[in-house]
Structures are given as structure tokens and as C-alpha cells.
Write a structure and sequence with these properties.
Blueprint: E1 2-8, E2 11-17, E3 20-25, E4 30-35, E5 38-44, E6 47-51, H1 53-58, H2 64-94, H3 101-110, E7 128-132, E8 135-141, E9 144-149, E10 154-159, E11 162-169, E12 172-178
Antiparallel strand pairs: 1-12, 2-11, 3-10, 4-9, 5-8, 6-7
């Protein structure tokens, strides 16, 4: 006798639906307004004063007022010297007993006088320099940034996925005995 065995494996079936996840958001614009900062500056310029009148005077370049004052002073000195000389000559001529007063005076007046020359550098004095400081003042006008954001509310949706597991095919084992003779001895 023969044994016939037929078998079939079990099969599992799986059906799945994927889940879904979505986010939607309202797009409210951002409102931004600004005011620029401003810097205001006021300045007064510095002044540099240079007085070179003393240097120019030493070089002979004088103002008319200074020149007339100097010439008037020289004229006064020359007049006083001439008056003293004339008075002295008059006294000398009055002394007749000394004799030849006029000849002596003429000889003294027209005698060769020694001349001297000097070399000098001008100007000797420095110019007077004065600085009047300027001022700088300023202030800042502050600016600002104003930011307004609308309410943003996201819409979140979630659909759950699904998995279905089932038995698609049953398992079985079928054993058949074929033939009529049975060997009991096992041989």
C-alpha cells in the first residue's frame, strides 16, 4: 500500500491604506512700517586769525595810520634836534670873543660823516596767531520699526492609515492510502 500526502500552506493577505497628514495655513501678510533715524548736525567753523602787521612793519610795509604816526614822531624829533642845534649855534655866535664861530659851524656841518651799514634779517618777530574754536552740536531723531503680524492658525488634518490582515488560503494536509495490499511485516 502506498501513502499519498498532499499539503497546502496557509497564505496571509494584507490590505493597507496609507495614512494622510496635511497642514494648511492661512497666509496673512506681515505689515511692516518704518521711520528712518535722522542725525541733525549744526556746526560753526573754527576761525584762524593771523596778524602779520608787526612783521610787515619791520619790513617797512605799514598801514597809513602807523606810517603817519611814525613820520610825525620822526618830524617832532628832527624839529627838536634842529631847534637845539640852532640855539647852540646862536650861543656860539654870541660868544664873539672865541672868534671864527661861523667857520667852525660850517666845517662841523659839512664835514664828512662816517656812514655805517648793517645787515639784518626781517621779520624778527613772529606773527600773532589766534584760533577761535568752532562748535559742533547735534541730536538724533530716533526711528522705529513697527511690525504687525496677523494671527496665523494652521489647519492640521490627520487620517489614520488602516492595515487589514486576513487568511487568504487555509492550510491543509491530506493523506491517502492507495493500493489494496498491506504489508504488515514491514519488510
Amino acid at each position: 500500500m502506498q501513502i499519498r500526502i498532499q499539503s497546502q500552506s496557509a497564505l496571509i493577505g494584507i490590505n493597507s491604506n496609507f495614512g494622510e497628514f496635511s497642514i494648511q495655513q492661512n497666509q496673512w501678510p506681515m505689515k511692516l512700517s518704518t521711520k528712518d533715524s535722522k542725525l541733525h548736525i549744526q556746526s560753526e567753523e573754527a576761525v584762524l586769525l593771523i596778524d602779520q602787521s608787526r612783521c610787515f612793519a619791520e619790513a617797512g610795509l605799514k598801514s597809513t595810520m602807523e606810517m603817519s604816526r611814525e613820520l610825525a614822531n620822526k618830524g617832532r624829533v628832527a624839529a627838536l634836534q634842529a631847534t637845539a642845534r640852532i640855539a647852540g649855534e646862536g650861543k656860539e655866535m654870541a660868544d664873539i670873543h672865541n672868534g671864527m664861530a661861523i667857520a667852525r659851524q660850517a666845517k662841523a656841518r659839512y664835514a664828512a660823516k662816517e656812514k655805517s651799514f648793517n645787515f639784518d634779517m626781517i621779520p624778527k618777530s613772529r606773527p600773532e596767531i589766534e584760533v577761535i574754536q568752532g562748535e559742533v552740536s547735534g541730536y538724533v531723531e530716533r526711528g522705529y520699526i513697527d511690525l504687525n503680524m496677523g494671527k496665523i492658525t494652521p489647519d492640521i488634518k490627520y487620517y489614520r492609515g488602516d492595515i487589514n490582515i486576513y487568511l487568504k488560503q487555509k492550510n491543509y494536509l491530506k493523506i491517502d492510502f492507495v493500493g489494496e495490499n498491506v504489508n504488515v511485516l514491514g519488510g
